[in-house]
Amino acid sequence: DNNIWFASDRSGISIIDANRMQMQRVPRDHEEKKGSTGDFFIDSHGRGWYSDHYGINYVDLKTRKHKHYPLKQTTFVWCKASFVEDNDSNLWVIGRDNGLFRYDREKDTLICVLGRDSNKPNNTDPVVMTTGVLGTDGFIWVGTYNFGLMKFDPITETAEYFESGRPDDQVLSVEEGVDENGRRILWVGDVRGLGVFRPDQKKFYFFPDILSKPYEVNDIYRDPDGIVWVSTSDGIIKYHPRSNAIQVISIPKEGLAQ
Question: Is 34's pLDDT higher than 70?
């Protein structure tokens, strides 16, 4: 129906009606308890998912009914998860410091396969995850706060980690793309800037001179035309692989003041 669903930090879940061009909030039960929301995701089955400070949530896009799936409470104070699907349409919940969960549709439950909440003795690394992307290689690539970049195999449910070489070893955002020669790369961002990871070399390359000072990468998105858009603390970075050109769109100073 081309409607736009989104989760906001202060206003909860909302929908923009594509025909009327009007925004409407979608209230939840016990909303005062759930706090901020984020990371809205619509899976291949047409189900809406989002996270809050206490776990993850499902919303039926037609009836607008919600269901909450709690996660164990820890010292992590932000929204608890982001989402990605594999090639078999399995939903994976990237549960920040709780772990990586697979959603079992038949049992309507979350199964932790890696991380702090996992029941598997060999998969309880204290990894704190950020966001992830499904690669064309079938692996799920996940950024972490403390283990660099994680390559996860959804079939064997095993992980491999790659250190970024940066002081904090963080990868806050990750997105797949191609370079000017059509070779596959992964765009990565951290609190100090933007770079790429080359899977064939297993190496990171960061760009020191895109902006005049260090900046934090908030999100990376590759559009259907292959153009990469990077949201940063200082503005927007745009990369077009055909021209191999990087364009910087700065945030006006008056915008930062607000």
Answer: no
